[in-house]
Structures are given as structure tokens and as C-alpha cells.
């Protein structure tokens, strides 16, 4: 059994530049036990460690889309394909895709919140038989902060996907202006039965809160909503308490929560 406290050395296979501040690191990994929505702890000796969501994975690699924002990420961005990165995980609970089978899937993400839902969207892209259809809304700050351009194009071209991409400000071909939550009203939720759909919302806490409320204004039942927290997980094993809200350890019970639980945790 792997020691959950001990980082393991894995080779970087590729680095894909997404924006001026974000890149996707493709890391060699052959333990096919990842759930969509889980996270890993990434580290470099003598530098530090940080929790990073999984943005994609297969049987041979795992991808992390990282923003250059601090001491550890600055050094990670100096690495090249062939260099080693230390990782441990995966940790936490992912999205309950088994419970979503045969339903309409609504995914609403803001900014870097697109990263934790990317693998879920790819799953439904590859397995259309597992859902009725997919409504995907992704909002970005402006044209310079758009992530996963090729992925967005692939989702747009899928017959069972209905996509809306938005910018908070500025213009870009194929994108609408406004916040992601403004376009929830365009989804035909009121035509569906309560047990026929599931909603995933990921982004900053204020975005998740306001978007969940807008969904409910449009007829969504709160028990059909799931969110994912990006919080300061440190040990990832429920020992340090850094991610604790009230009596809940986000690293253990999350990062994915049903909204019925999450609404009491948004601080």
C-alpha cells in the first residue's frame, strides 16, 4: 500500500501553455484510480507543497492546470518536460458520476473553476450514452484568460453538448458578454422532471453561491446541485485542520459537496 503522506517522483511528459499565467503539466502516472473532481498534493523538495485539482487523466498520465502565483508555482514553471515533479494523491471525493447516469448534465464553471470540471466534460464527450445531454457554461474574465481553447471547440462540435462561453469584459468570437450565471435562464430546466438532471458548479465561492441561487430561481432543486471547493488543503488527510469549516474537513468530505451541505460551509 502506498504511504499517503509520502510524495512520489513522477516525470513531466509535456507542458501546454494555456495563458500567460497558466499552463497544463502532463505528468506520468499509471495508477488508474482517480475520480473526476479529486486533487493531488504537488511538491518540490526544499520549495513547498500545494493542492492542485486534476484537470484531465488517462491510464498513463494525469494533468494539472497550474496558475503561476507563488513560490512553489514559480519554480514549477521553470521545469521542462523530462524533469521530475513530486506528487501524492489522489485525495478527496469526486463528482458522483454513477448517480448522474441517464440525466441531463449541467456544468457551470468560472475562470480556473473550468479546470476541475474539464475531465468530467471529457468523460461525457467520450461517453454520450451515460447522459441525455450536456449543458456547459464557462465564464472567463476576458479573452486573455480563456482556458482550454481546443477543448471548448471539441465540446461545441459534439451533438449532445449545448455550450455557452462568456467573458466578464471585452469581446472574443464565439463568446457572449456577461457572467456565466446570466445564461442559466437559457437552459430548459422547467421542462424536465426533478430527477432528470444534475448540476455541477465550480468557481470562486461568491460565484458558486450566486450561481446556485440563480439555478434555484430557474426551478433547480437544491439537492440536484453539486459544487467543488478550492480551499487551503495542507495535509489532505484531515490532520492539520487548515481546510476545516465548522466540523467539516474539506479535504476528506470534499472537495465535491452536494449543495445541501455546501450552503452551510461557504464562509
UniProtKB/TrEMBL annotation:
<feature type="binding site">
    <location>
        <position position="251"/>
    </location>
    <ligand>
        <name>[2Fe-2S] cluster</name>
    </ligand>
</feature>
<dbReference type="GO" id="GO:0051537">
    <property type="term" value="F:2 iron, 2 sulfur cluster binding"/>
</dbReference>
<feature type="binding site">
    <location>
        <position position="243"/>
    </location>
    <ligand>
        <name>[2Fe-2S] cluster</name>
    </ligand>
</feature>
<feature type="binding site">
    <location>
        <position position="240"/>
    </location>
    <ligand>
        <name>[2Fe-2S] cluster</name>
    </ligand>
</feature>
<feature type="domain" description="FAD-binding FR-type">
    <location>
        <begin position="5"/>
        <end position="97"/>
    </location>
</feature>
<keyword id="KW-0408">Iron</keyword>
<dbReference type="GO" id="GO:0006221">
    <property type="term" value="P:pyrimidine nucleotide biosynthetic process"/>
</dbReference>
<feature type="binding site">
    <location>
        <position position="235"/>
    </location>
    <ligand>
        <name>[2Fe-2S] cluster</name>
    </ligand>
</feature>
<dbReference type="InterPro" id="IPR017938">
    <property type="entry name" value="Riboflavin_synthase-like_b-brl"/>
</dbReference>
<dbReference type="InterPro" id="IPR014260">
    <property type="entry name" value="Sulphite_reductase_B"/>
</dbReference>
<dbReference type="GO" id="GO:0016491">
    <property type="term" value="F:oxidoreductase activity"/>
</dbReference>
<dbReference type="InterPro" id="IPR050353">
    <property type="entry name" value="PyrK_electron_transfer"/>
</dbReference>
<dbReference type="InterPro" id="IPR001433">
    <property type="entry name" value="OxRdtase_FAD/NAD-bd"/>
</dbReference>
<dbReference type="InterPro" id="IPR012165">
    <property type="entry name" value="Cyt_c3_hydrogenase_gsu"/>
</dbReference>
<keyword id="KW-0411">Iron-sulfur</keyword>
<dbReference type="Pfam" id="PF00175">
    <property type="entry name" value="NAD_binding_1"/>
</dbReference>
<dbReference type="GO" id="GO:0046872">
    <property type="term" value="F:metal ion binding"/>
</dbReference>
<dbReference type="InterPro" id="IPR017927">
    <property type="entry name" value="FAD-bd_FR_type"/>
</dbReference>
<dbReference type="Pfam" id="PF10418">
    <property type="entry name" value="DHODB_Fe-S_bind"/>
</dbReference>
<keyword id="KW-0479">Metal-binding</keyword>
<dbReference type="InterPro" id="IPR039261">
    <property type="entry name" value="FNR_nucleotide-bd"/>
</dbReference>
<protein>
    <submittedName>
        <fullName>Anaerobic sulfite reductase subunit AsrB</fullName>
    </submittedName>
</protein>
<dbReference type="InterPro" id="IPR019480">
    <property type="entry name" value="Dihydroorotate_DH_Fe-S-bd"/>
</dbReference>
<dbReference type="GO" id="GO:0050660">
    <property type="term" value="F:flavin adenine dinucleotide binding"/>
</dbReference>
<keyword id="KW-0001">2Fe-2S</keyword>
Amino acid at each position: 500500500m502506498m504511504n499517503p503522506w509520502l510524495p512520489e517522483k513522477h516525470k513531466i511528459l509535456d507542458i501546454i501553455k494555456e495563458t500567460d499565467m497558466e499552463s497544463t503539466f502532463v505528468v506520468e502516472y499509471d495508477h488508474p484510480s482517480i475520480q473526476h473532481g479529486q486533487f493531488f498534493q504537488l511538491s518540490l523538495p526544499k520549495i513547498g507543497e500545494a493542492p492542485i485539482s486534476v484537470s484531465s487523466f488517462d491510464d498513463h498520465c494525469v494533468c494539472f492546470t497550474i496558475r503561476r502565483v507563488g513560490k512553489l508555482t514559480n519554480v514549477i514553471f521553470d521545469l521542462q518536460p523530462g524533469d521530475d515533479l513530486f506528487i501524492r494523491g489522489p485525495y478527496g471525493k469526486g463528482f458522483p458520476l454513477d448517480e448522474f447516469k441517464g440525466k441531463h448534465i449541467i456544468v457551470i464553471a468560472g475562470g480556473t473553476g473550468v479546470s476541475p470540471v474539464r475531465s468530467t466534460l471529457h468523460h461525457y464527450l467520450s461517453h454520450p450514452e451515460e447522459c441525455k445531454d450536456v449543458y456547459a457554461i464557462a465564464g472567463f474574465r476576458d479573452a486573455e484568460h480563456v482556458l482550454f481553447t481546443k477543448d471548448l471547440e471539441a465540446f461545441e462540435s459534439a451533438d449532445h453538448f449545448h455550450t455557452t462561453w462568456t467573458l466578464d469584459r471585452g469581446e472574443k468570437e464565439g463568446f457572449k458578454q456577461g457572467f456565466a450565471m446570466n445564461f442559466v435562464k437559457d437552459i430548459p430546466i422547467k421542462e424536465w422532471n426533478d430527477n432528470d438532471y444534475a448540476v455541477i458548479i465550480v468557481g470562486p465561492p461568491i460565484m458558486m453561491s450566486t450561481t446556485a441561487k440563480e439555478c434555484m430561481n430557474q426551478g433547480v432543486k437544491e439537492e440536484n446541485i453539486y459544487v467543488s471547493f478550492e480551499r487551503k488543503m495542507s495535509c489532505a488527510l484531515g490532520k492539520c485542520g487548515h481546510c476545516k469549516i465548522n466540523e467539516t474537513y474539506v479535504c476528506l468530505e470534499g472537495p465535491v459537496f452536494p449543495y445541501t451541505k455546501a450552503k452551510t460551509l461557504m464562509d
